[in-house]
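Help!! Second protein's tokens look totally different from the first
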Amino acid sequence: MAEVKDLEQNDLPQAASAPENMAQAAPEGGTARKGLKETWRGMPRKKKRQIIRRGIALVIVVALVIGGVKFWKGRSPGDTQIVTDVVSYGAITSTVEGNGLTKAKNSETITLTTPGTVQEVMVTEGQMVNEGDPLFVVDSEAARTAVQKARTDVEGYEKQLNTLQKDIAGLNLAAGYPGKLMDVVTLNPGDTINKGDKVATLSDDTRLRLEQYYSYAYEGQIKAGQTVDVSIPALMSSLKGTVESVHMVSRITPEGSKLFSAEIIIQNDGALTADMIASATAVTASGEKVYPYEPGKLEYYRTGDLCSTVSGTVISSSLVDYLQVSQGQVLVRIDGESSESEIFTVQQSLEEARKTLATAEENLANCSAVAPISGTVIGLILTPGSEVEANTAVITIADTSTIVVDATVDERNVSYVKPGMPVEIDQWGTTFYGTVDTVSLNSKAENGVATYPMVISVDNPDGSLMTGSYVNYKLTASENDNCLVVPIQCVKSVPLEDGSAADVLFVKSDTRPDNAIDVSVTVDGLPDKGFWAVPVETGISDEYNVEIKSGVEEGTEVFTTAPTTGMM
């Protein structure tokens, strides 16, 4: 700059006065112009180079001075430079990335829920097995005892239920056979009746029974099915009867005779009653009459107590002494709510007992386990002779030909992820390829962000993708190779008066765009004038840009974000 300074102080006045002197020496302009050229031509080369260097330096200094003056006149310390971008057409690809845990799609773990002693182990860790292959044998007395107890419980509840179901039929207490009611208990609607309460005696008087004794001299000559004559003095008549059975007892009379008995049945036409005296005379094949040792008394063919099989409240009763009833005739109606409740309780207990039995049988079967599926032994803790505690997972068989990745996708991207999409999997730097299997709609909120469970399926025929490890995944959610895009930081979300929110771009314009809206938010670095909030519809995005579907056109200048501070 010293050279420039000298030029300004010494050479510039001389250069400025030269034309004036030339003009005085030559009144005509052409002569003066010619003299300047001639002077330059006659100047030494060294002097010419010196003048040129000084002239260039002077021009640079003047330009810097003038530019600096203009710059500083329009700025003050701390001014901010506005950064904008332009809406333009471009390509955009939206990807979704995350991580997840690998596991076999199909695996089975055998757990011993009872203690025992390991007797034999037929497989080793990492061995391939086929479904049905024997795995191990464990001796467990506890497992056998549990099965036996469970079976006993099931049998007990089954018997109890059968009894109750038979009893519940007694809500309509009916005659089990035809006959005559006696010793009737008076029952009125609303009376309480308990299970086992006797309400009447039912005697089958459609037939009567007569027991007769005959001498052993006629052994074999009186047989079942033989017709006999029954004399009834009270009726002064005789009726036909039939030998029902013969019993070769050894009754000895006071006279020393040996007798056998015969049961004789007489049909009742209504005239016969119990305790009538009767004698039955038989006729042998040779025509000889055989008389009983003594007369006997008629008895009802069968007699029994009519008892309630349920507890409840009497709805109605038709019990009357000496009422002739038919088989199945309803005599007492009962409200058996308590009995129905008891049946329900027993049914529940029986169901639980059956579940317990199934579990006990499974536990016992596991003591001599076979492979439930074909696959690889990936977990084995058994050694011969060792003791196994209850509730111990002793072996796992996994089919690793297909691996699933339990992963999540956040709420911003879940709408783009669909079953069947290809997925790139990275495990320790090795790439595998799979597909989206399922995407759940049940979200889980964590740290203010909702995530959705996703399952990725990966074919793994060679077993190179390991189970039980965290892997990274990446998939292309959507792509568009010709769409309007802007940097992602250009889009602002602003609240609206109705409580909703809208995505906007702050468009640079001297006049208000037709689709501009008023917003009350403050954006850092945004000037008070010259920019307008215009609602836009956004589409897919990547790490840098976002798709603009509507709201602005190509070439629109928009506010970005980050302001830059000017020099002090």
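Here's the second one for comparison:
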Amino acid sequence: MAHKFTEEQLNSADRALLIQMILNLQDQSEALTKEVHDLNEKMQLMMEQLVLAKKDRFGRSSEKMDSPGQICFMEVDGNIVFFNEAEAVYDPDAPEPEDLELPKKRGRKRTGKRDEDLSGLDTNIITHYLSEKELIDEFGENGWKQLPDSISRRYKFVPARVEVDEHHIGVYSSKADGHIVRAPHPKGLLHGSPVSASLGAAVMNAKYVNAVPLYRLEKEFERYGLAITRQNMANWMIRLSEEYLALLYDYLHKLLYDFHVIQADETPCLVHRDGRPAGAKSYMWVYRSGCMRLEKQIILYEYQKTRNAAHPRKFLKDFKGICVTDGYQVYHTLEKEREDLKIAGCWVHCRRRFYDALETIPKQGRKGTIGYLVVKQIQAIYREEGKLLDLSPEERFRQRQVVVKPLVDALFVYLKQNEPKIQAKGKMREAFDYALNQERYLKVFLTDGDVPMDNNASERAIRGFTIGRKNWQMIDTIKGANASAVIYSIAETAKANGLKPFEYFEHLLHEIPEHMDDHNLSFLDDLLPWSPALPERIRKNK
């Protein structure tokens, strides 16, 4: 316990003692001030983490600053919705749609093109006409003329069904020497397996497109009277992937090098039996062609045990051009190793950090803050960039120099001027550090009209896998992980090119087995997702 001096003692104390006492008090005050400051910083960081954790669990997923009419993810009218979504969004006064077909996407007008019916739906025309007797009774002899039909459309749903193709193959034996000949017949997909192209495609579509776990598929097949176990289906997926679909995957991998702009991302996954301790984290990497070029799209997954630079180094060894990433350091390492590779940054990741920092500030106090003005400036950059989407790469580059580049330059001037005002720790400091450290990468999109501002396209491409991952939590084996990478790649590539995944899988499983004895892979050109040789039934409604 500290000693307390009385007033009498202080009055009688000599000058040297008083000076020493004052100096000691100053030291103690400075120490306490520093301690309070450190505690305040820790408290601020804890409050930031608490606010962001609450936002991640219950808040909006959008980063828009002003979107009062936007419905939040898993939220309706401010209430979190889980199993009662139907009741939450039910509206008895909502009008019935006039038709159920997806609207055609608006694109550039093509001159000289006739109107076409691109619905792609089979239509059964059912006529309802009055008999001649009924007409005479109503109008008299020759007392009517027929007007254009009144058309009423009803959309009929035909549930899935399972049929058996039983192939009876003629077998003939020579009476002279006993040799046997069989009539020509389609080859089976897998030796000793009853799986067909359509059944294999159905499992792939359910699991890798619609994220249905195999155990649910097993129950669904039971309802159709089929005893197909999840082990059966897992084996089919691995074997069909290895024997057939991997050929197309490798072909697409080589074609990816023809693009001068690609995008990359990665997401963690768990593989149960990969030779490491339980719970060890693996990664599914995704590489895709640049999203600004829409005529041909390639999306490829690759499974790897780790997240180190060796994997993209090998995958991209023959790629020369620009790779858009989220700022992960391994890509910057690759850029330093090679003169023919340039890395572009992601503005969404930059914006997200400032947005998270703003979330830690009470809403009424955000407007006018440094972070608020930074986010508004980034929004202005996105707004001007959005006006250039329909331009050619060359014209987009020119317009970026005139309109977008000044906004980007102004933002970084503002960041550098205000960086000293930001406290040493916290979300706002992290946001500033990220933006300033990534400046050279964030400006790469200004140098090429084919480079997007962000890496959102890669994140969208990997979303199918992340949704599936939530349903089945982990992949059992490395072989299963590699098969998943191949099948996901083809599914996402099909979707990106406007194909129906089920029909495309079925077509591939019909065609590839017929070419297994070919001496080259040229037949794959007709199976590429943008090939004009593909049947029209595979293409989605425009």
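Reply: Different proteins will give different token patterns, so don't panic. The longest strand covers residues 261-273.
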